[in-house]
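Hi support team,

I submitted a single chain yesterday and got back a structure, but I'm not sure I'm reading the token output correctly. Could someone confirm the output below corresponds to the sequence I sent? I've pasted both exactly as they appear in my results page.

Thanks,
R.
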Amino acid sequence: MKVAANLMVEIPTLRYDDYVTKARSVLRDDVFRELYIVDEKNRLMGCLDISDVLRVMDTKSNVTVKGFIREGAQVAPNTPLTEVGLAIMNARTNSAAVVNEDGTYQGGVLFSELFPVLISRREIPGRVEDAMSREPVTCAPDDPIYRIYSLIVASGFTAFPVVQKKETIGIVSRRDLLRAGNVRISVKNQADTTVERVMTTPVISVTPDDSLATASRLMVDHDISILPVIDERKRLVGVIDRHDVLCGRIP
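Hi R., thanks for writing in. Yes, this is the structure output for that exact sequence:
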């Protein structure tokens, strides 16, 4: 039986007195959506999320990560993978920290790496319509970045479908904003930089009648965490992510 240690990878850590600007640099350049915060003895204190980093817009800031530490998923090295998945689902995070009995941080398990393992163990039952989030918040390609930035920071949503003339043409995510170097300036100055300049295309989508197994395979094959749900009239009717797929379906 595989356990957390089998999928453990090195996820960067920060000290509680490190600056948020350092966290932003690490998250911008790497695949992680969370970083782990440790004390002087490398004991886990919590995690820092991309949304937390986006709240600090100054390129030179003396704000430390201490005030942004949140509780994340935490497991032992010998925790079975199904329990790791449940811990991530319950915390609504994208990873789980692996710690020893004394709380010493060892590494992390990424949901993006765990997800294919969990869905390969059994056919995921149900249709997309059964699990999708309805009435998603959307944006337009000509919306200013500062509006979407504010929505992501305030709402906690990770991504927004980009809709033009009722057609979904892209996705804009927290990572898109973090990687776009001019976003902070645009937000601070409420400049006219638009969503179209930073959104991800093309769009991979599903229909409400597609099986959850189909949605799962698309997420794995394209290494994406969220899919717009489009009906027969090409209208956006929802979104579905990895958490939605597995909610209540991990044995």
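A quick pointer for reading it: Residues 128-246 form a domain with the CBS-domain fold (CATH 3.10.580.10). Let us know if anything else looks off.

Best,
Support desk
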